[in-house]
Amino acid sequence: MMWMVGGALILLVARFLWLAFFHRVNAMSRQAELMNWLDIGRVSNADGGKDILLARNERGARIDWRTGEVWLMNPKVEEPFADFLAVERWLTLRDMPKADRPAPAAPEEPEPEPAPEPGPVRDTLPAFQQKVDDCLARAQGGQELLETKQAFEAGSEPYLEASTELSKTALELDVSPAMVATFHISAFAALAETAGADKLERVAASLHAAARQIRASVTA
Question: Which residues are within 8 A (CB) of 169 and not within 5 positions of it... i.e. 6 or more apart?
């Protein structure tokens, strides 16, 4: 039985020591004393208990008995402070001339977003057509093939139109200049098998068909 009484006494002493030294309200009281705030009494809290009143010169403060938060009463501040260190900082800045106050920290500028990697540079139509001519010139009998193409484009408006359409389609759909050159060579090969005065118009129709074939193969 005695050990139970002894244990209860130890618990009561431990609780008293905790309240006396470690409870936040008492910690705030000791901090205030170190900063020359004087305990001048108690005042009832609306939720029960007694808040601690303190004064220093013309300043007045109150420690909330529940949370240990510090409220400035003179000057009146609407929000509580975490401790008396925060109170001192606020008072120091308040009484400091504006010219001497530290400038507010500049907001951090957001890091610039990485620039997107540049995509492949697309040829202009004249540059692409020049590559087609270069491919023709490198083929077997290339000089003759190139001269034939240039002569047809100069002498036949339907052929020039069909050649331009084929190059535009190939450029748009990323078909190589070599493939376009191959279509021209196929059109020249079919020329020998074509009879009649409208040979060039039929060859131009072949180039139009090649352009449609490219579109169909890409969209399929």
Answer: 175, 211, 214, 215
* Residue 147: its H or E element: helix 142-155
SS3 assignment, position 50 = strand
Q: H/E element holding 54?
A: strand 50-56
Q: How far is 156 from 57, CA to CA, in rounded Å?
A: 105
Nearest to 63 by CA among 49, 130, 176: 49
In this prediction, residue 60 carries a pLDDT of: 92
pLDDT by 10-residue block (mean), the chain, 220 residues: 50 46 75 87 84 90 88 89 88 73 67 70 85 86 81 83 89 87 79 64 83 79
Tokens encoding 138:
């490198």
Identity of the residue numbered 134: D
Q: What are phi and psi of 146, to 5 degrees?
A: -65, -45
Distance from CA of residue 155 to its chain's centroid? 57
Structure tokens of 56?
A: 């220093």
Model pTM score: 0.45
| List of residues 6+ apart from 14 with CB closer than 8 A | none
